[in-house]
Amino acid sequence: MENNSLSLKQQLLNMFVEYAYQEGDFTLSSGQKSNFYLNGKQVTLRAQGALAVGKLIYEMLSPQAQGVAGLTLGADPIVSAVSVVSAYENNPIPALIIRKEAKGHGTKAYIEGPNLPPGAVVTVLEDVVTTGKSAMLAVERLIDAGYQVDKIISLVDRQAGGAEFYQSQGLEFESIFTIADIQAKSKEK
C-alpha cells in the first residue's frame, strides 16, 4: 500500500504543477500579494485528481473521524472525494459543506449535509492554506453546531503562517504538500 501511496502522491504533485500552479502577480483571498497562485480546483475537479485526493486524505483521517467538512467552494470537491473513497473502503464517512453565509431561506443553515450525532468528531479539509482563516471559519461553524474538530488537513500549505495559526488555536494540522514541494517540482520541469 505504501508504494501505491507514494506513486499516488507523486501523480498528484505532477497535477498540481501542471494544472494548478502559476507564477505572476496575484492578490490572494487573504488580501496578501503573491508572485504565485495555486488554484486547487484545477486538480480536485479532474477525475484523477479527485481520486488521488480522496485516497490520500482518507488515509490521513483519524480512526475517530465521523465526518469531513470544509468551507465552500474550495473544499467541496475534496470532502466529496474523501466521502466517496470512504464508501469504497466500507467505512462511509459523510461530507459536510459549510457556507460562508447562512442560507437565506428554509433552515437558514450554515452547514449542508447529514446531521451527525452531537459531539461527533469532524476533520476539516481545505485545498490551500495561507493564513488559516478560511478553514478556521469552518472550525468555528462546526463547534457552534455541537461537533468536535480533531484536525485540519490541507492539500497544500503555502507556508504563510497558517500552520502556526492553527497551532496557536490548539488544532492539529497536516498537509499533503508544502508550496516548497510544488515550486521545487515546477523548477524540474
Automatic annotation (TrEMBL):
InterPro entries linked: OPRT (IPR023031), Or_phspho_trans_dom (IPR004467), PRTase-like (IPR029057), PRTase_dom (IPR000836)
Sites where the protein binds 5-phospho-alpha-D-ribose 1-diphosphate: 99-100, 103, 105, 126-134
Binding site for orotate: 130, 158
Gene3D superfamilies: 3.40.50.2020
Swiss-Prot/TrEMBL cofactor(s): Mg(2+)
Catalysis performed (reactions): orotidine 5'-phosphate + diphosphate = orotate + 5-phospho-alpha-D-ribose 1-diphosphate
UniProt pathway annotation: Pyrimidine metabolism; UMP biosynthesis via de novo pathway; UMP from orotate: step 1/2
GO biological process, one term: 'de novo' UMP biosynthetic process
A GO molecular function held by the record: orotate phosphoribosyltransferase activity
Its EC number(s): 2.4.2.10
Enzyme type, top EC level: transferase
UniProt cross-references to CDD domains, sorted A to Z: PRTases_typeI
Alphabetic keyword roster: Glycosyltransferase, Magnesium, Pyrimidine biosynthesis, Transferase
Function: Catalyzes the transfer of a ribosyl phosphate group from 5-phosphoribose 1-diphosphate to orotate, leading to the formation of orotidine monophosphate (OMP).
Subunit structure: Homodimer.
Cross-referenced NCBIfam families: pyrE
Family membership noted in the UniProt record: Belongs to the purine/pyrimidine phosphoribosyltransferase family. PyrE subfamily.
Name by which UniProt lists this protein: Orotate phosphoribosyltransferase
